[in-house]
Amino acid sequence: MSNHLPAGAGSGGGGGRAGDSGLRYPSNGKTIYHRPLNRTKTAELSKAAFAYLFAEMVSYAQRRVTGIQELEKRLNLQGHPIGLKLLDLLLFREPPRTQLRPLNIIALLHFIKINVWTHLFGRQADRLEKSSNPDTPDEFMIIDNEPLVNAYISVPKEMSQLNCAAFAAGIIEGVCDGAGFPARVTAHTVGDTGEGGEMWPGRTVFLVKFQPEVLEREALIGAKS
Amino acid sequence: MSFHFAHSSKPWPLPSRIPPRRQRHGNLLKKKGSLIASLTVFSLVIINKAGGLIYNRTFHEGGLNKISTNDYLVLAGTFHGVHAITARLNPVKSAPERPLSNSIPGVPGGILTRPEPPSGLEVLESENFRLQCFNTLTGVKFLLFTDTTQTNVDVIIRRIYDLYSDYVMKNPFYQLEMPIRCDMFDRKLLSYIREVNNR
């Protein structure tokens, strides 16, 4: 532990704390909490750094699981708190007049497709669809042709059920839960089948399945207005 | 240099007739001063730092005779050994230190004065093909078999290294030093080589 201490740790104001927690503080004392929350400038991050980090997250989640379902569940759980916080942050960054949380399903899904996606991945999601099956009116689909989280990942054949975008699904689930639309979100690879499968082998469908009470409320609001 | 013929047990007339024609074709075009040269990348072999074969793919059928996977394993191991020995054959004047000590960190003299590490065997050429080796800093070797007239092999091999570091090293399901089975790597590699071969 001692060799991780920065050389000038004793001189700075935060030096003592750095020793206690093992965390390092910038020499000017400004942490990320000192930065303004609503900078509008697009801050770019290294894709490679994210890819390595995400690869480690997948390996970590894989370490103590028995099945693919469980692995996806873990990735989902890793994303969930990000979605919860992201909803607040993105609404805070909206101009004050439009600082409203989405009040119906369509508005929420558009918010995810446009704002959340642009913030996370630098572009919008490719498509938004409602389930065509009349038995499942609670299912909606957000379609991404090339999920950024899967950019460098090839899933081995024996795990072909797995889609690591379960992490992004967790983020979506967090946003939905935070907005008061509890839902289950799962990620599915559909690259091999369907139109354009050749062109987009990694196409992923995020299946958003809202809880029954959400649709009940939606129907009530729809009837009133 | 004709080791690939030594491995083919049965006489197979077709491929032995094809390479000379290709060769003549290439030379003819070069003599004419045309910008089009016959450019072909035949196959790629990746060897891990222990000398094991971890990837082997043929891009152009009929360019080289087929040899069995076992022979490829032997080729990888042999090349690794030859490379290691040739890396020790450095001219004396350019190496003030013994070449072996180069790899040991903390040698007095510091990192600034350290000479380039000895590179070892880089190109191996026969009448019908050219073998270019690219040894990464971590000891992975990329062997690219190309036509003898292929240009810019350095660029191609560097791009393949890019693809390897993206689609193999960033894949959480790849285990280091193990054979490479990554769909995404295969796909990107094939489309890149197709582009090179059709240029």
TrEMBL record, chain A:
TM helices/strands, residue ranges: none
Q: Where in the cell is it found?
A: Endoplasmic reticulum; Golgi apparatus, cis-Golgi network
Q: State the GO CC annotations.
A: endoplasmic reticulum; TRAPPI protein complex; TRAPPII protein complex; TRAPPIII protein complex
Task: Fetch the CDD domains from UniProt.
Answer: TRAPPC5_Trs31
Q: Where is this region: Disordered?
A: 1-21
Q: Where is the composition biased (Gly residues)?
A: 9-19
Q: Which domain of life is it from?
A: Eukaryota
Pfam families in UniProt: TRAPP
Q: What does this protein do?
A: Plays a key role in the late stages of endoplasmic reticulum to Golgi traffic.
Stated family: Belongs to the TRAPP small subunits family. BET3 subfamily.
Assembly and partners are described as: Part of the multisubunit TRAPP (transport protein particle) complex.
State what protein this is by name.
Trafficking protein particle complex subunit
- Per the UniProt record, the source organism is Neurospora tetrasperma (strain FGSC 2508 / ATCC MYA-4615 / P0657)
Q: What is the lineage of its organism?
A: Eukaryota, Fungi, Dikarya, Ascomycota, Pezizomycotina
Automatic annotation (TrEMBL), chain B:
Location, primary (coarse class): endoplasmic reticulum
Entry-linked Pfam families: Sybindin (PF04099)
**Subunit record text:** Part of the multisubunit transport protein particle (TRAPP) complex.
PANTHER family referenced in this protein's UniProt entry, alphabetically: TRAFFICKING PROTEIN PARTICLE COMPLEX SUBUNIT, TRAFFICKING PROTEIN PARTICLE COMPLEX SUBUNIT 4
Task: Give me the segments passing through the membrane.
Answer: none
Any GO BP annotation: endoplasmic reticulum to Golgi vesicle-mediated transport
- Organism this protein belongs to: Neurospora tetrasperma (strain FGSC 2508 / ATCC MYA-4615 / P0657)
**Protein localization:** Endoplasmic reticulum; Golgi apparatus, cis-Golgi network; Golgi apparatus
Presence of keyword Transport: yes
* Keywords attached to this entry: Endoplasmic reticulum, ER-Golgi transport, Golgi apparatus, Transport
The family note in this entry says: Belongs to the TRAPP small subunits family. TRAPPC4 subfamily.
* Protein name according to UniProt: Trafficking protein particle complex subunit
For the keyword Disulfide bond, the answer is: no
Q: Which Gene3D superfamilies match?
A: 3.30.450.70
GO CC aspect terms: endoplasmic reticulum; Golgi apparatus; TRAPP complex
